[in-house]
Amino acid sequence: MTQKEFLDIVYCTMVVMRSLALVLALILCSIPPATAEETQQDDMSLSGLAQSLNATLEYDPLSHAGTITRAGHSVRFAVDVPYILLDWSAIKRVPSPYETEDSLRVKKEFTDVLREFFQAKPGASSKYSVKAIVVDPGHGGKDPGAIGEFGDFKLQEKDVNLAIAHRLTELLRIHYPDRTILLTRNDDSFPSLEQRVDMANTIRLGETEAILYISIHANASFNKNTRGFEVWYLNPDYRRTLVDEETAKEKGQDIAPIINTMLEEEFTTESIILAQKVYQRMGKMIGDDSPGRGIKAEEWFVVRNAKMPSILIEVGFVTNREEAFLLTQDAYLRRIADAIYNGVCDFIEHFEQ
């Protein structure tokens, strides 16, 4: 089988959030399946295993995959997949976790492998943390974005985005003085879309460090009655190359696509959680003035090219007179920025704990 045929099989068999199990099964089909000689009485709940290891368990019932972490080290698993990924670098064959009516359970061999893995990591590295946040006020300079024109005032999207972004970064820098908080533009300038995402993608991260990308926009519609806010994340159907050439060469042509798939799933899950946190806070802060229109998936340039958890926020419609007037008010823009800030803080607390 050629490399191209191999990759075609990988990409063609991915299905939204169930992709992990299918991809691993195809890629690793040449390896004999794990045996399951252990009796049912030796099985253990995965939550009980995590508790006994003093580790954190996160499980996504949609993708049927999860992660067990302790002191900066991680084990990635999926239901009905007889392999685990250790610290995103090594694959180990084990009996696959399985679901019962009331819990997620694993065989004794699975338990023994995890105990051995975590015990071999006594010099624990720091826990996972968000090192940097890139705030992207959309449009700018020659590109005004959406425009709302009314008899007594005119509103340009680029101005709304920048005002909110300035307030948001100010709050983040105060709350997180030891972290990198960046704006893709500080003034009425026009960095290209490529420059915006490159700013984030070129930030160097440690093994246990993460980065967030938050793009701020305002909306427009031919229907002048349309109003409300939305939060977008990357469509899970979209496939990206997240593993760089150096890592791919180091890990090998068989392992790199697996790591890429798992990173893709991880970023999608985290983007959805980040979107939910921000959306909930916006609903509490401005929901009485602007209706929530939902959390949605799309392939906007910045979210599909930012190699990290990322969201795009539409704070309101500049083409709706009532909402456009609100978006000219400094106090209202501060409320939006405060809502996004609190949503980001909620996510960081969730991610780091």
How is this fold's topology laid out?
Blueprint (H helix, E strand, L loop, with lengths): L2 H10 L6 H9 L16 E2 H7 L3 E5 L4 E6 L2 E6 L4 E4 L3 E4 L4 E2 L4 E3 L1 H12 L9 E9 L9 E3 L4 E3 H19 L4 E4 L9 H9 L7 E11 L9 E6 L10 H7 L4 H31 L5 E7 L2 H5 L4 E8 L3 H6 L3 H23 L1
Parallel strand pairs: 9-12, 9-13, 13-16, 14-15
Antiparallel strand pairs: 1-8, 2-3, 3-4, 4-5, 5-6, 7-8, 10-11, 14-16
Task: Characterise the protein shown here.
The chain is an alpha/beta fold and 353 residues long. It folds into two domains: 3-118, Copper amine oxidase-like, N-terminal domain (Copper Amine Oxidase, Chain A, domain 1); 129-352, 3-Layer(aba) Sandwich (Aminopeptidase), CATH 3.40.630. 39% of the residues lie in helices and 24% in strands. The protein has helices at residues 3-12, 19-27, 46-52, 108-119, 157-175, 193-201, 245-251, 256-286, 301-305, 321-326, 330-352; strands spanning 44-45, 56-60, 65-70, 73-78, 83-86, 90-93, 98-99, 104-106, 129-137, 147-149, 154-156, 180-183, 209-219, 229-234, 292-298, 310-317. The strands form four sheets. Strands 12-9-13-16-14-15 form a six-stranded mixed β-sheet, with helices on both faces. The radius of gyration is 22 Å and the shape is elongated.
